[in-house]
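> example.struct
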């Protein structure tokens, strides 16, 4: 079984970003970049399935600028077999990404598609669901456990009420949550081997996909600063302040 894993290049989660001086975009010049953490979990799960003998090939794909090759090579160092970069300078939005991935699914014919449940920059949580709809595949989102049973996938997903288990017929789309696994660190020999693994490039035009943004961002701004709290001397004073604020 072939597994297709979509990954995204994002600012490292430890970096604090701010809007630029014109408030037209986030200022990420010189910022450390990394694989989106949820996408890294998806790569790890695919590699584990290959190590178990369930998957025969792991293909990672990213859509974006040429610099995304760095994150694709990092995924190859984690154990993926080959990579595909759909190169574009467009401001990508979830539907355009889903359409590109749909075309790649048609070309690659994977038995399973894995994605992170969301990216830490956009936080849209839309691409996996859109891709499943375009492909006509079953989907399991927010997966905290994934077990392949023949031609089916048993997905345990996290919901507001607790855990829900779904049995999906393959091929299917699964989006990964934090508790699915703990991604490994790449070893130096695997980092060296990743440089020799195949990395193909193509464009959205070759896939016959229009990536023109459908939503226009007007302005970026930071949320208002939280005001300092107020200490009160006793419970009666606290109740009085709550009544003044009409909270009780």
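> example.seq
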């Amino acid at each position: 079984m072939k597994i297709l894993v979509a990954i995204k290049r994002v600012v490292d989660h430890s970096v604090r970003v701010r809007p630029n001086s014109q408030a037209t975009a986030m200022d990420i010049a010189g910022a450390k970049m990394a694989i989106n953490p949820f996408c890294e979990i998806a790569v790890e799960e695919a590699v584990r399935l290959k190590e178990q003998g369930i998957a025969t090939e792991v293909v990672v794909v990213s859509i974006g600028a040429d610099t995304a090759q760095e994150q694709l090579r990092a995924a190859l160092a984690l154990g993926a077999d080959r990579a595909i970069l759909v190169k574009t300078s467009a401001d990508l939005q979830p539907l355009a990404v889903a359409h590109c991935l749909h075309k790649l699914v048609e070309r690659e014919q994977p038995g399973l598609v894995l994605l992170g449940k969301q990216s830490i920059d956009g936080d849209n949580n839309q691409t996996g669901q859109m891709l499943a709809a375009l492909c006509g595949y079953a989907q399991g989102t927010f997966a905290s456990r994934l077990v392949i049973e023949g031609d089916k996938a048993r997905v345990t997903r996290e919901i507001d009420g607790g855990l829900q288990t779904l049995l999906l017929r393959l091929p299917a789309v699964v989006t990964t949550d934090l508790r699915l696994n703990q991604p490994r660190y790449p070893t130096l020999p695997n980092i060296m081997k990743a440089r020799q693994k195949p990395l193909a490039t193509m464009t959205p035009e070759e896939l016959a996909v229009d990536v023109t943004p459908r939503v226009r961002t007007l302005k970026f701004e930071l949320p208002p600063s939280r005001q300092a709290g107020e200490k009160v001397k006793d419970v009666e004073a606290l109740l009085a302040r709550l009544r003044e604020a009409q909270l009780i």
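> remarks
The chain has a mean pLDDT of 92.
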